[in-house]
User: Fold this.
Amino acid sequence: MKTLKILVSRCIFISVIFGSPIVIANDNQSINVGNTGVHYQPLIADGPLRRREGGLVDDNADGGSVSRGISRGISRGISRGISRGISRGISRGISRGISRGISRGISRGISRGISRGISRGISRGISRGISRGISRGISRGISRGISRGISRGISRGISRGISRGISRGISRGISRGISRGISRGISRGISRGISRGANSHKGETEEKSETVPEKQPLPLPELLAPLAPQHTGFTVTKQPNLYWYLSAPWDGNIEFSINKIGAIEPILELIIGLPPHSDRHEVGMHHLQLADFDDIHLEPNQEYEWFIFIVTDPGQRSGDLLGSGTIRYTEPSKKLTERLNRTSKEQWYKVYAEEGIWYDAISNLCEQIDKHPENKALRKVRAALSEQVKMPKVAYYDQPPVVKN
Assistant:
């Protein structure tokens, strides 16, 4: 039998003989994904890398997780610091500008109105008559001063407060957001990256020597990975299903959000609680149906980024276990429609994959696996697709490694 055998842990090619099955070995383990006949043909083959996986993506945990934690901590700290600094600076600047403008306008208007009314009333009253001038000047000065002072003070205070609040809020928000984002991102990224890398490596060593008893809360999963290609994936469904892989049980919440590329505010964000009648999210594939949200529809040719993450410390968000992928909706082509019409729905995943429609391919395939969980052939196909988009650890879940004696 002709095989291609690869050492994953050190990426050393042992032998290459082109043929049917592919055997991937990890030290004394091997996985045979075989020739499934399903090949994903991406519509954008050379685009920028978009997918992010949370946790230990590679087997070499000594330095990879440390450097990855540092780089992600710095990048997330800077981006979040800038966006939050700008938004908070603008909102605080406007609110403070309005409140200060109104209070100062009223107080200044009243004081100036009274003082000017009295002085003008007295001076005019002398020429017109001291008694009438003083009484009328004081009463008219006070009433006119208060009314004009309040109206002018409020209008000028609001206009000046808004304009100054926006300009100062944006400038201060950007400067403070950048400085705080960089400093916090670097410090948190370094500390979180080093601690996570050390703990992950220590955990792997301990697992080989002894069985660690289950603790509450459960330890953080090693991997949280979106079932997404490295580049932007496509869908022909305005409300697609989005899948991700969880490498270990988790007894806390999982958070989800999706937003247009370049936008600050997401179009949807929610907390995914524990499943009904269960105290944890189990190992394996999980998904969210956008069809459950009537007001969420993907726009044509608009790129979106979706996130799944576990928040370990709400006060230190740079330590989140986060995975993300990008998706774009496109109208189905005439060729795709004709091929689907000629194919049974149970085999649509093959057509979608060959036409470069990743998200619908993986969704249709996962639906078939949910209906027939013991069908090893279907899981072998999913493992092959995971391999094709460079997610070997996700492929291991569907095609477990074989331990060699």
DSSP finds seven helices and 14 strands in the chain. The radius of gyration is 32 Å. Residues 1-32 form one domain.
